[in-house]
Design brief:
With 227 residues, the chain is α/β, with parallel strands linked by helices. It is built from eight helices and nine strands. It has two domains: 144 residues, TPP-binding domain (Rossmann fold); 71 residues, SIR2/SIRT2 'Small Domain', CATH 3.30.1600.10. Strands 3-2-1-7-8-9 form a six-stranded parallel beta sheet, sandwiched between helices. Strand 2, helix 6 and strand 3 form a beta-alpha-beta unit. Helix 5 runs parallel beside helix 8. The protein is elongated and about 55 Å long. The mean pLDDT is 92.
Length: 227
C-alpha cells in the first residue's frame, strides 16, 4: 500500500518553544515597534536602516537557537509517510531537524533578495547592511513577505494541502490570511489534528483538537501515528 500523505502547517507556536519570540504574544518581539514600520514596503521606504537592524537581530537570534523535540518528531514521520511541511515561520528549524520537504509561506530569514528582481534570492547568514547589493547592483532586503505584499508560495501550498490524507496544524491561530484559508483546500475526507494550547478551532467529526503546547502535543501524536 502506498504511503499516506501528511501535510503539516506550522506557525509561531512551534518556534516559540525553541526560544524564538512571537510578535503576537504579550512579551512579543515586536512590542514597542509599529509593525508597519518594520514589516511593510512603506516601512522599508521610510527607514531601511531600522528594518535591516530589526531583521539582523532576529537572524542573530535564530543562529543561537536549536530545533526542539516537536521539530525532530515531525522529521521522524518521514520513516512511514510522505510528509510535506508548510510553515508560516521564517526560521530554518524544520530543516535543521531533518525534514526534507519544507515550504516557507512567508519567506526565509537566512536568505536575502534583490529589491529590483524578486527572483534573485541568495543565502545570507550575516547582517544585511546598507550597500549590500545583488547582482543587478540593487540593495538587498530580507527575503520575508511583509504586510501588504503578495504571498507567492500560497498557490503551491494550496496544491500540497489538497493532497494530504492527514493535515496537522501546529502552533498557529489560523486567523491570519491567506495562510488560514489553506484549510479550505484540504481533501474532503482528510483527518485534521489541531495542536494548540488555546485552540481557535472547535473539534468535530473530522477535526481532532489536541489542547497542548507544540512539543507535548506533537511528540504524543507522532508516537501514535508511527505505531
Amino acid at each position: 500500500m502506498e504511503n499516506k500523505n501528511i501535510v503539516i502547517l506550522t506557525g509561531a507556536g512551534i518556534s516559540a518553544e525553541s526560544g524564538i519570540k512571537t510578535f503576537r504574544d504579550d512579551d512579543g518581539l515586536w512590542e514597542g515597534h509599529d509593525i508597519m514600520e518594520i514589516a511593510s514596503p512603506q516601512g522599508w521606504e521610510n527607514n531601511q536602516n531600522k528594518v535591516l537592524n530589526f531583521y539582523n537581530l532576529r537572524r542573530k537570534q535564530l543562529l543561537e537557537v536549536s530545533p526542539n523535540a516537536a521539530h525532530y518528531a515531525l522529521a521522524k514521520l518521514e520513516s512511514k509517510y510522505n510528509v510535506n511541511i508548510i510553515t508560516q515561520n521564517v526560521d530554518d528549524l524544520h530543516e535543521r531537524a531533518g525534514s526534507s520537504h519544507v515550504l516557507h509561506l512567508h519567506g526565509e530569514l537566512l536568505k536575502a533578495r534583490s529589491t529590483v528582481d524578486e527572483e534573485i534570492v541568495v543565502e545570507w547568514k550575516k547582517d544585511i547592511l546598507p550597500g549590500d547589493r545583488c547582482s543587478k547592483n540593487s540593495q538587498l532586503r530580507p527575503h520575508v513577505v511583509w504586510f501588504g505584499e503578495a504571498v507567492p508560495m500560497f498557490g503551491p501550498a494550496a496544491e500540497i494541502t489538497g493532497k494530504g490524507d492527514i493535515l496537522i496544524i501546529i502552533g498557529t491561530s489560523m486567523q491570519v490570511y491567506p495562510a488560514a484559508s489553506l484549510m479550505d483546500f484540504r481533501k474532503d475526507r482528510a483527518t485534521v489534528y489541531f495542536i494548540d494550547p488555546k485552540p481557535s478551532i472547535a473539534p468535530n467529526s473530522q477535526v481532532k483538537v489536541i489542547q497542548k503546547n507544540a512539543v507535548e502535543g506533537v511528540v504524543a501524536l507522532v508516537e501514535d501515528l508511527l505505531k
